[in-house]
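Allow me, if you will, to draw on your knowledge of protein folds for a short while. I have a record of one protein: its chain in single-letter code and its fold written as discrete structure tokens. Could you please explain, in whatever detail you think fit, how the structure tokens follow from the sequence? The record follows directly beneath this note:
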Amino acid sequence: MVTQSDAGAAAKPYVICLMQSSIDGRLHPSRYTESPDGSRKDWTAAYESAHDALGGNAWLVGRVTMAEMSKAAPHPPASPGAVERPLHVATRADSYAIALDRSGKLHFDGGTVGGDAVIVLLGPDVADSHLAELAADGVSYIVSPDHEFDFAEILETLGRDFGIAKLLLEGGGGINGSLLAAGVVDELHVLVAPALDGGAAVDGIVTYGTEGLNGKVRLSLLGAETQGHGIVALRYAVTSA
């Protein structure tokens, strides 16, 4: 196991928020209107290509998204023993899948998702039995000392103890908004599909969350280009207001 003394000086990873959106700012392609320019499958493939092209060595999503990829049932060890807090490094890897799971509801059947080593970001009230389960599965974790996550500190830990240099933020509106409000996002990339969702604004699936970003974030256009299947790709630099 790698300890903090084995790693170099803390350095925050470069964070790019990469999202796909309908014209009205919604996240779920399953609800998008149809277009003669392309299909939902085409837009999903374009997003995956953008993910690969950015060359991040980690990606970060919320609990709901990760639960779609890891469907294991709870399986705490019979004799958990002592657990590490606030940091457990199961392994160092070339690439990581990171999940924000404040309450410890995610379960895994191994230490990787899609070939990427798993790291879970947890709240302070998570039980030792859950930490023991994660450790036994080869999953790394960081336990926040407070209910309000200090994302700047968490990112420094990810850089220092896991060697993460570029992180792709690919969550839902809540997690995207939280990191933007915390001032830790460096760029915003959005692929706008030629589609509408049209759902009610209160259904919680807007692209950048409910944090109230006015007065906290400034965007500067870096580039705009049209791509295949009617997609417009927008890139912005993000700075704190």
Remarks:
- The chain is about 20% helix and 25% strand.
